[in-house]
Design a protein that fits this description.
The chain has 265 residues and is of the alpha/beta class. Helices cover 43% and strands 18% of the residues. The protein has one domain: Vaccinia Virus protein VP39 (Rossmann fold, 3-Layer(aba) Sandwich), CATH 3.40.50.150. A seven-stranded mixed β-sheet has the order 3-2-1-4-5-7-6, sandwiched between helices. The protein is globular.
Length: 265
């Protein structure tokens, strides 16, 4: 796999971001390179730039997933493992985090190893893999989660179909993603922050040269709404989709169920 060290060009130039980054043919390679390059400061940037809210958004995702001791949980695009570890604290039967960025996974491994084993049984596993082509059997999971990941996947519909395939009938998919607040004043403040302030401060803090924090607001404004995402989930066979806006709609949780009696697809 190509790493940032092999390719010194920014993953996203200003020119690239004038268009829609989701339509870039080589989006997957650019996204992987970008996350490989920012992995070291990713958590710190998240905490600071969400004003400490990011972990509470992940806890809301865990609550929506209703994880119990019998669950086999898959956290896709797990990155540095924050959601995976929060899910693991619910002590499911098994918990696996998958991501395609080796540098993000390296941080996840370190964090997993530093948590007291007694606190996390079973120990979360982390593996490199692609959300659109999971190396897992049909119906092998009961919960699939993805936090701030679906926007970054090359073909979100293909990934959601893949989540449906690996879920057992009755299984839940929980998607946490940024969204556009419906209140115009909140939206104005959030746009100002995301487009003008955060790209400067986050780039400075991480010493980033990949363009990650200019890609972030552009990828948010050009991505599907929570309602459109729910329609894709319905098209892929999920039922009972519901939303939960968080922090004035800055993020939204979307949950859907793979209907019981539905065989592998
Ligand atoms: C914004 S980070 C989110 C990480 C983590 N879920 C969190 O809550 O902080 C997005 C992650 O999606 C991963 N990603 C993007 N496309 C992917 C794909 N096709 N397969 C696996 N991981 C992918 C990136 O490597 C990155 O770690």
């Amino acid at each position: 796999m190509t790493t940032d060290k092999d390719n010194p060009a920014p993953a996203w130039s200003n020119e690239d971001l004038r268009g829609n980054p989701h339509q870039a043919q080589d989006k997957a390679g650019r996204v992987r390179r970008m996350f490989d390059s920012i992995a070291g400061r990713y958590d710190l940037n998240n905490r600071l730039h969400s004003f400490g809210r990011d972990q509470s958004w992940r806890r809301s995702a865990v609550a929506m997933a209703e994880v119990g001791p019998m669950d086999r949980v898959l956290d896709v695009a797990c990155g540095t493992g924050d959601l995976t570890l929060a899910l693991a604290r619910k002590k499911p039967a098994s918990i696996l985090g998958v991501d395609f960025s080796s540098e993000m996974l390296a941080v996840a491994h370190r964090k997993g190893a530093s948590v007291k084993l007694a606190d996390l049984t079973p120990t979360p596993e982390f593996k490199q893999g692609d959300a659109m082509n999971l190396e897992l059997d049909d119906a092998s999971c009961t919960v699939v989660t993805i936090a701030f990941g679906i926007r970054n996947v090359l073909d979100p519909a293909r990934a959601i179909a893949e989540f449906h395939r690996v879920l057992a009938p009755g299984g839940r998919l929980v998607i946490l993603e940024f969204s556009q607040p419906s209140n115009r004043l909140v939206r104005f403040g959030s746009d100002l922050y995301n487009k003008r302030i955060m790209p400067l401060t986050a780039t400075l803090l991480s010493g980033d040269r990949s363009g990650a924090y200019r890609y972030l607001p552009r990828s948010m404004e050009t991505f599907a709404s929570a309602e459109e995402l729910a329609c894709v989930m319905t098209d892929c066979g999920f039922q009972d989709t519901r939303h939960q806006p968080l922090t004035f709609g800055v993020c939204t949780l979307t949950c859907g169920i793979k209907p019981a009696g539905h065989g592998p697809s």
